[in-house]
Amino acid sequence: MSQPRQPSLPQSGQPSPYLAPPSYNPFGAPVVEEPRLPWAKAVLVTVVVFLVAGVVAGWGWQQFSPLAQYTVDEQGGALGEEQMTRIFGPDGTFTAIGFVTAVVLGAALFWWLRNYGPWSVAIVTLGACLGAGVSWGVGMLLGHDPLEPRLRAAHPGDLVSAPLELHTWTPAASWLVGAALACAIIAATTWRADPVATTSQPAASDPGPPLH
Questions:
Q1: Tell me, what's the pLDDT at 141?
Q2: DSSP string, 173-189
Q3: CA-CA-CA-CA torsion for 74, 76, 80, 85, nearest 10 degrees?
Q4: H or E element in which residue 54 lies
Q5: What distance, in Å, lies between the first and last C-alpha atoms of the chain?
Q6: pLDDT tens per residue, range 156-193
Q7: 3-state secondary structure of 70
Q8: Are the CB atoms for 115 and 96 separated by under 8 Å?
């Protein structure tokens, strides 16, 4: 009594449709992507850096801003011609400190977050806006004394410093401009750093039918 024959599986050189073909880099070495930081960590580090920088910059703005001096008389306080030139001193100091700080920190953070592409620019610029707000708030908290009460309490001949304040909001934009400029310079100088293929490799031709 003959036993039933087992059906034989066809032998084929074709790859199984259920197996993913191996990936190759057409230029040789395999492509290795640098790992990205988690979004939460990238944003948190940027916020902390600009938060600390804003506190230090606000203290520096309060310490080094040249303030105009009012001379007290019977009618109140008056500014001389020389003191009139110093009335916008806090604006210039805030602009200089903010611009330099934003350029340095913006360049460092943009280089650190460069794997995020255009999103790194958004992270850095938003951090710079935070730094500007913190710097202004700290400076006002430390050095803004209302002028009128001090003039009323002073005696004729006394000198009373003008309050620390920004006369326009334009100096606050120095943080944003500095950070954006740093990102633009680094992006412009490194965009050609990736290797570019100068020669094209011919595609592998399919083998012809076997000759009999």
A1: 94
A2: HHHHHHHHHHHHHHHHH
A3: 170
A4: helix 39-64
A5: 42
A6: 888 888 899 999 999 999 999 999 999 999 998 887 55
A7: strand
A8: no
